[in-house]
Write a structure and sequence with these properties.
The complex is a heterotrimer. Chain B is mainly α. Chain B has 14 helices and two strands; from the N terminus they run ααααββαααααααααα. In chain B, a hairpin with a 2-residue loop joins strand 1 and strand 2. In chain B, helix 1 (2-33) crosses helix 9 and helix 2 crosses helix 9 (218-233). Chain C has nine helices and ten strands. In chain C, helix 3 packs parallel to helix 5 and helix 5 packs parallel to helix 6. Chain C is globular. Classes of the chains: A mainly alpha, B mainly alpha, C alpha/beta.
Chain lengths: 430, 316, 251
């Protein structure tokens, strides 16, 4: 009996420890968000971080649908874009003095705009789940893309809607003339939205979203309408997508129909999935990695989407749990304090895979050069070396890298896997 | 007026049958495997590009046969090496996989053939007006498209109703589990159906490329419409796909032909709208401009009125 | 007294095939009743009609006096009627505790709330913990339900059914596929969790039926041929004929 009587206290202790750890993580996140612009000071870095912050909010809102609710949307950017357009129009009205809306609350305006359209489109699209829901979301996205060509005044046609955040009324004297100031605004809304979205998953309807994802029929037999549960999740996701759109309007001061197009919806699916839909941090990791790769790659190659597409497909085929899932797999090794033993095997395998990747990238880039690039230049720089794609040597060189890297990785991968298994073993004593 | 209706009907029929060549394969694949193949229209695009390149070397007619075969093999490969691997993770994972394939194909097409549209021409043999009605003529090539589409339709019909393989396919449309129980090699049937569906899509691409254009966005343009068709028709229903293909094809062709704006129509009945009003954009919209939206509006209306689609019985 | 569940001339056909052919049945509140009958008699169909999964072709169904014939499953559930399934039907990716918590939410009045924290919903959490203990699954509290053993999943199936606090409970073959000792445990569990409630269960194991039921209804080819106490059912000639195929008078 004694074990029974002490158990509630032990449970309370565990719960308190968990709560401390959870608040600690949020506190750490806040500190990192505040410190980042002090540590990384270049203008481009700030611009990329702003882009990342917006992408994180957007990806988290997308995962409310896909990861939490089991709804695959091909049109989530609709709510991002509409929220952004509404925020941009409101900002213009504020700039003319028609409305008193200062910049810091503008993302909320975007959120409400996203929410309004999520209510409208969600009312019929959440009646279905699975594949049909996905197709409806695609239909809605196409509907909006086509509408953007018609409603010129709202969408601004080809040029889009431009706005100017410096003309809006000030709140508490806060100015947003420089990227760094916008950074703190984005960081604030990112922090608030992330907490709110995390909290949403811990509410009754958030839990039921998981239940409906797992087994919609059974959810109905415990009192919940699956359509209604999906609808509520959908509206919440639309709201936070709208906040991200509002942040976009403030940051870039321009919105075009492309921001709510199919490619934008596809991008958020890619980043969320690469990061991992099974956990809350997955979309955060995915959005940061995706934005980083996108901005790095687009400086060097016109085919960045090809590389991200390959990364995406590789994730779907080989690590469907995403980057966050891979990290989670290493929790046992971390707890057993054996993570250090993995560094060596991982580095070897990774280096060899990188060799193969360099070879593949080189070949793809040379194909692109021969087919699409201007014919006046005979060479282009690849990996800091000038290569001449119209001669045989670089093709052989890169092919050799692919073969060597692939063979090496095939040799090294089982060793890394064995090291992982060994390190993940539960500690022998304790 | 007769001329307008006649040609719109004819063009709508051609477009509708083209849609059916895509939606039939999509429906077969969905019906059997539960997978809505997002990359289906990408195989259509590959068909056009393969035929374009092959046509440069060996001419249009051999390409008409070889391009679909190549794409069909590629489709089977995608099923065997990719789709089968994610099958265990459920239909959403499969849909995500085919979405990734669609992105990859579009990017590879841009890599290999470049961004600008290719001048994929109608073969000389069919480059003449078939007949004239008043001031308009009907090109022979469109008649050829119609003939190919009808032939494919007949082919599918005969296969499904007159052969043993067709019976298995039909059975697995409604009772996929049972067919496996009866000892048929379902994975191989899947691979073959996926390959044939891809080849059909590619054939549609080969014949549509010269008319609708051969460019990297062609998959996205037609793909979304085809998804609308299969949802309106009712997922998994071939009859539904056929009816919805023709419906969308004809509705859209008619809408494009009508150059009447809402405001113009209102003015004709004596109502004039203040050009400064907030809805001004709406009034100056012509029906032709609305044409691209119409399939999606139909989709939304259909889902509100009849969520399973015209002939659908299965929920998802 | 109002019956807990009342069926009036309920008929159900699939296409041209009648499956339920005019069932009238009243279940007295607070009793444990069993629905038995040969395979294909329509027992599961009747369950699906009562719980709103299928629509009746004709006839009315009332729960605690209220007409529920045209209501959806979740509307019927909210009126205090809950069911389990013959084939295990749980939330596989969620933990055992979360399964029970979700099942308890509506009954505790939380509806589609996004302004409450589930961790602070004391009544719900206590209810889930209580059921967890009743099911003997406390040790498996945080394990995903999908990885439980078959018997554990069957227990969870019952737990989800009763966690919402429904006072009319329908169990569809709760002991199917279980060993002798597992069955005994489940019988004890059912007895415990349905105390003071109305229970209707489909069951093939006659020892379980005669052990638990106050009254037994016998369904044969879509018709109720007897509805009586276990003793009288045991002695009923029509029931014997239906089960054993022995014509009346010969046995």
């Amino acid at each position: 009996m004694s074990t029974v009587s002490t158990r509630p206290i032990a449970v309370a202790g565990v719960a308190r420890a968990a709560r401390v750890r959870r608040y600690g993580i949020w506190l750490a996140a806040a500190v990192v968000l505040l410190a980042l612009p002090q540590l990384i000071r270049t203008g481009t870095a700030i611009a990329i971080m702003n882009q990342m912050g917006i992408a994180v909010v957007f990806a988290l809102s997308f995962n409310m649908l896909l990861g939490q609710g089991g709804m695959l949307s091909f049109g989530h950017a609709v709510y991002f874009g509409l929220g952004g357009f509404i925020a941009a129009h409101v900002l213009n009205l504020a700039g003319r003095g028609t409305l008193w809306i200062p910049v810091p609350v503008l993302p909320l305006v975007g959120g409400l705009g996203g929410l309004a359209f999520a209510i409208l489109f969600g009312s019929f699209s959440t009646r279905r789940a699975g594949t049909v829901f996905a197709m409806i979301s695609l239909g809605v996205a196409e509907l909006m893309a086509a509408s953007s060509l018609i409603f010129d005044r709202f969408f601004g046609g080809e040029e889009g809607i431009t706005t100017n955040r410096s003309k809006a009324p000030l709140l508490l004297g806060l100015e947003f003339t420089r990227d760094r100031q916008v950074y703190y605004l984005i960081a604030f809304w990112l922090f608030v939205s992330a907490i709110a979205m995390y909290a949403f998953s811990r509410t009754p309807v958030g839990r039921m979203a998981n239940a409906v994802r797992d087994n919609p029929e059974r959810a109905e037999f415990v009192g919940y309408s699956q359509n209604r549960v999906r609808f509520v999740s959908f509206c919440a996701a639309g709201f936070f997508a709208g906040i991200a759109g509002g942040l976009f309007a403030v940051n870039y001061e321009i919105l075009t129909a492309e921001n709510m197009g199919l490619n934008a919806s596809g991008a958020v699916l890619l980043m969320t999935y690469i990061g991992g839909i099974g956990s809350f941090v997955g979309p955060v990791i995915g959005a940061v990695v995706f934005t980083f790769l996108q901005s790095m790659l687009s400086d060097y190659t016109g085919m960045w989407l090809l590389y991200l597409g390959i990364l995406f497909l590789a994730t779907v085929l080989f690590v469907p749990m995403g980057l966050a899932g891979v990290l989670m797999l290493h929790a046992p090794a971390w707890r057993a304090r054996r993570i250090g033993r993995l560094v060596g095997p991982y580095l070897v395998t990774g280096a060899l895979a990188l060799v193969a990747a360099v070879g593949i990238i080189g070949i793809l880039e040379m194909i692109h050069f021969v087919v699409a690039a201007d014919t006046t230049r005979p060479t282009r720089r690849l990996f800091w070396v000038a290569v001449a794609p119209r001669t045989l040597t670089p093709w052989l060189g890169f092919a050799a890298l692919v073969v060597a890297g692939a063979l090496g990785a095939r040799w090294a991968a089982p060793r890394a896997a064995a090291a992982f298994t060994e390190a993940s073993r539960p500690a022998a004593t304790s | 007026m007769f001329q307008l209706i006649f040609f719109s009907l004819l063009n709508g029929l051609v477009y509708g049958m083209l849609l059916f060549m895509l939606s039939s394969g999509l429906t077969l694949i969905f019906g059997m495997m539960g997978v809505l193949n997002f990359a289906h229209a990408s195989f259509y695009m590959l068909g056009a590009y393969f035929a374009f390149t092959l046509g440069l070397h060996i001419g249009f007619w051999p390409a008409l046969v070889i391009a679909p075969v190549l794409v069909g093999l590629l489709g089977a490969l995608v099923e065997r090496q990719g789709l089968r691997r994610v099958h265990g993770f459920g239909h959403i994972a499969e849909l995500i996989f085919t979405f990734g394939v669609a992105i990859l194909i579009e990017e590879v097409v841009q890599l290999v053939w470049g961004r600008p549209a290719k001048s994929y021409q109608v073969p000389v043999l069919l480059d003449f007006p078939l007949f004239r009605v008043m001031s308009s003529s009907f090109p022979a090539y469109k008649a050829f498209m119609l003939v190919v589409a009808v032939a494919i339709f007949a082919f599918i019909f005969v296969i499904l109703t007159r052969t043993r393989a067709g019976l298995i396919i039909q059975a697995s449309l409604t009772h996929p589990g049972m067919v496996a129980m009866l000892g048929h090699n379902v994975p191989r049937v899947f691979m073959v159906v996926f390959g044939i569906g891809s080849a059909l899509a590619a054939l549609a691409g080969v014949i549509a490329g010269p008319v609708l254009g051969t460019f990297p966005g062609m998959a996205q343009v037609l793909g979304s419409i085809v998804f609308v068709v299969v949802v309106i028709g009712g997922l998994g229903s071939l009859t539904g796909a056929f009816v919805a293909s023709l419906l969308i094809g004809i509705v859209q062709t008619f809408a494009v032909a009508m150059d009447v704006s809402v405001g113009g129509a209102l003015a004709a009945v004596g109502v004039h709208v203040n050009p400064g009003s907030a809805l001004h954009d709406l009034w100056k919209v012509t029906i032709a401009q609305v044409a691209p939206i119409l399939p999606y509006v139909l989709l939304v209306l259909m889902l509100i009125v009849r969520p399973t689609g015209l002939f659908g019985t299965r929920e998802t | 007294m109002t019956p807990a569940v009342e069926l009036v001339e309920v008929r159900k056909s699939f296409g041209a095939t009648p499956i339920i052919r005019g069932v009238s049945l009243a279940l007295e509140a607070g009793t444990r009743q069993a629905l038995i009958g040969p395979n294909g008699a329509g027992k599961s169909t009747l369950f699906n009609l009562i719980t709103g999964k299928y629509r009746v072709t004709t006839g009315r169904i009332r729960v605690k006096g209220e007409d529920v014939t045209d209501l959806t499953p979740y509307e019927i559930n909210r009126r205090g009627l809950s069911r389990s399934f013959q084939v295990t039907n749980i939330f596989t990716r969620m933990s055992v505790f979360e399964n029970l918590r979700c099942a308890a939410l509506w009954g505790a009045g939380y509806r589609y709330s996004f302004w409450h924290r589930v961790s602070a919903a004391r009544a719900v959490n206590e209810r889930a913990e209580t059921v967890l203990e009743q099911l003997n699954l406390t040790a498996r509290r945080d394990v995903p339900a999908g990885v439980l053993s078959y018997a554990e999943q069957r227990a969870l199936e019952i737990g989800i059914t009763i966690a919402g606090g429904a006072d009319v409970v329908l169990l569809d073959e709760p002991t199917s596929g279980m060993s002798r000792s597992e069955t005994e445990h489940v019988v004890g569990l059912i007895r415990q969790v349905t105390a003071g409630k109305t229970l209707l269960m489909v069951e093939h194991d006659m020892s379980v039926v005669f052990d638990l039921a106050d009254r037994i209804a016998v369904l044969v080819y879509g018709e109720i041929i007897a509805h009586d106490t276990p003793e009288r059912i045991r002695a009923n000639a029509a029931v014997q004929e239906a089960y054993l195929g022995v014509p009346q008078g010969v046995a």
